[in-house]
Amino acid sequence: MYLVTSDGVVMFDTPWDTTRFQPLLDSIKNRHHKNVVLCIATHFHDDRTGGLRYYAQQGIKTYTTRQTDELSKKSGMKRAEFLIDKDTVFNVGQYSFQTYFPGPGHAADNIVIWFEKEKILYGGCLVKSVEYDDLGNLADAYIKEYATTIKNVQAKCKKPRYIIPGHGSWINSNSLDHTLQMAEKLEHKN
Predict the structure, then answer these.
(1) How buried is residue 153: exposed, middle or buried, by Cβ count under 10 Å (0-12/13-18/19+)?
(2) Which residue in the list 13, 47, 69, 109 is annotated as catalytic?
(3) How confident is the model at residue 190, as a pLDDT?
(4) Which position among 26, 91, 134, 137 bears the catalytic label?
(5) First to last CA, the chain
(6) Is 43 one of the annotated active-site residues of the chain?
(7) pTM over 0.85, yes/no
(8) pLDDT at residue 8 above 90?
C-alpha cells in the first residue's frame, strides 16, 4: 500500500521480488508525479522488508520498529535506516497516521497502520482478506495470542471504513472479524 501526499509518497511495506523494487518507484512517479519519501515495514518477513536497503539507497527514509530490526538482524533480513521505539504518529503532507503494535500474531513484531481521521486500517499480514480460509504463514505466529491481538486492533481502530490486508482483496471490510474467527478456531484447536 502507498499513500500520496502533498509532500511525497509513503510506502507501507516493500515488494520482496528484487525485480519489482525500481518498477514500483517508477510506476508511482509516472502515475502521481511524486517521489516516495518514506517507507515503513510492518514486520520482519521478507515480503515486508525485502526492499528496505534498496529504498534507503535511493534516499527514501526507511522505518521499522526496534523489535522488527532485532528480528531482521537475527534472520538475515533487510534492515531499516530508522527505528521506531513505540507507537508513533507520522504527519506527512496533509495526512496523519499512527503505527500501532497490538501484540504478537502473525509474527512477534507485527504492527498495523491506522488513519484515525479517514478510518483506514492497513493490517499488513496480521489481517487476512475474507477470500482466505486460513491465517497463511504461521511459521513465526503466536497462535495463543493471535485472537487477543486482533481484539486489540478492533479496540484501537474503531469502525474502520476500509481494512487493507497484507495480501488479497480489501473490498470486503469484514476482514478483521474474519481473521478473529480463524484465530479463535486455531487457538482452540491447539
Answers:
(1) buried
(2) 47
(3) 67
(4) 137
(5) 33
(6) yes
(7) yes
(8) yes
Give the pLDDT confidence of 9-19 residue by residue, as tens digits. 999 999 989 99
SS3 at position 155: helix
Find the angle CA(11)-CA(34)-CA(88) to the nearest 5 degrees: 35
**Domains of the chain, CATH where assigned:** 2-189 (3.60.15.10)
Q: Are 50 and 18 in contact (CB under 8 A)?
A: yes
Say how far apart CA 9 and CA 25 lie, in whole Å.
10
Name the active-site residue from 13, 69, 106, 110: 106
H or E segment to which residue 9 belongs: strand 8-12
Instruction: Return the pLDDT at 60.
Output: 98
What SS3 class is residue 37? strand
28: left (phi over 0), alpha (psi -120 to 50) or beta: alpha
Q: Which of 43, 69, 110, 178 is catalytic?
A: 43
178 is catalytic: no
pLDDT digits 0-9 by tens, 160-188: 999 999 888 888 889 999 999 999 998 88
Q: How far, CA to CA in Å, does 166 sit from each of 8, 57, 170?
A: 22, 25, 9
Please confirm, yes or no, whether 32 is among the known catalytic residues. no
Q: What is the pLDDT of residues 33-91, one digit of tens each?
A: 999 999 999 999 999 999 999 999 999 999 999 999 999 999 999 999 999 999 999 99
Per-residue pLDDT, 189: 80
Amino acid at 158: K
